[in-house]
Write a structure and sequence with these properties.
Blueprint lengths: L22 H8 L6 E5 L14 H8 L2 E4 L9 H10 L5 E4 L3 H6 L6 H12 L9 E4 L9 H10 L6 E4 L4 H4 L1 H13 L3 E2 L1 E3 L15 E8 L5 H18 L3 E8 L5 H16 L19
Parallel strand pairs: 1-9, 2-3, 4-5, 5-6, 7-8, 8-9
Helix pairs in contact: 9-10
């Protein structure tokens, strides 16, 4: 992921901001007695240096319990593709697919997106119980002037499909009135507010949860600071779980994606004792750290 990339990451203050004041009350209200669901994954199951002879998705899903499925941003696949993905992955695995860019970037939530949404959901639903939260990432220049489009989209969205939304224009968060209206809309409709932790856009660390899901997209800087940054996330997620958080969906990116599996394995190793989870530690920490797909 190149979004938010900087040339001198050592100059960035990566300290996690304090929680938004409305996050704790939200977690108390949203808490329930369901078991904590913790998932850590990558944005794709192949890497540029992949040399596997075995099925890549099948192998990936033996190492991780989920995937942030970025491929669906670029096209809506045929129905048999989703059926194959379902069949190749084990019980309990989850896909978190990205909404097609025809909705978010090309048509920008205008009135023409709804047939596209219907078509997308028709085939995506073939993932059945392996379908996690779908996430919609808006273009950087999609600003609050488009508020009415956001409201109409949220009202149209079928509530049986969990949804997370990622807004990138600074005015969604720097204008307090706009931010509060957005948070309220998401909270009222049980939509997750995506948190993006990347070097060059610290303003996206709004730390405002809007439902019982922490949907985090973490972007490493290929720098030694990546590891203490992850420890800070372990501490924050641990705090949120004590406050009532029930779902952690954490996806690790890197500017050079080859290192993403290493960071993910490190994160899982820290999360397990902190949260009492028992996530499988990918092969990178069980042997020489050459990369998960070597």
């Amino acid at each position: 992921m190149k979004f938010g990339k900087v040339d001198r990451p050592e100059l960035i203050d990566f300290t996690l901001p304090p929680d938004h004041p409305d996050t704790h009350p939200l977690l108390i209200k949203a808490s329930n007695n369901s078991p904590l669901d913790v998932r850590v994954g990558l944005p794709k199951w192949t890497l540029p240096t992949t040399s596997l002879t075995k099925d890549e998705l099948q192998y990936y899903s033996s190492q991780f319990n989920c995937i942030e499925l970025n491929a669906t941003f670029y096209r809506i696949f045929p129905s048999d593709t989703y059926e194959k993905w379902y069949d190749k992955t084990p019980e309990g695995f989850k896909f978190f697919p990205k909404m097609t860019n025809e909705v978010s970037h090309l048509r920008r939530l205008n009135e023409q997106v709804y047939p596209v949404v219907d078509r997308y959901l028709e085939v995506t639903s073939l993932l059945k119980e392996k379908l996690g939260t779908i996430f919609l990432q808006m273009h950087n220049n999609f600003d609050p002037k488009n508020w009415d489009r956001v409201v109409r989209f949220v009202e149209y969205w079928p509530k049986e499909f969990p949804l997370a939304m990622e807004f990138r224009h600074t005015d969604w968060f720097n204008d307090e009135t706009v931010a509060q209206e957005l948070y309220h809309l998401l909270e009222e409709n049980q939509i997750a507010n995506v948190l993006v932790d990347t070097a060059g856009r610290r303003d996206l660390m709004h730390m405002r949860l809007t439902n019982n899901e922490a949907f985090v997209r973490y972007v490493g800087a290929n720098h030694p600071s990546d590891y203490p940054r992850l420890q800070d996330w372990v501490n924050r997620l641990s705090t949120w779980t004590t406050q009532g958080l029930g779902n952690i969906h954490f996806f690790v990116h890197q500017n050079l994606e080859l290192e993403s599996p290493l960071l993910s394995a490190h994160l899982i190793k820290q999360l397990n004792p902190a949260l009492g989870s028992d996530l499988h530690i990918p092969a990178t920490l069980n042997g020489p750290q050459k990369g998960l797909f070597d």
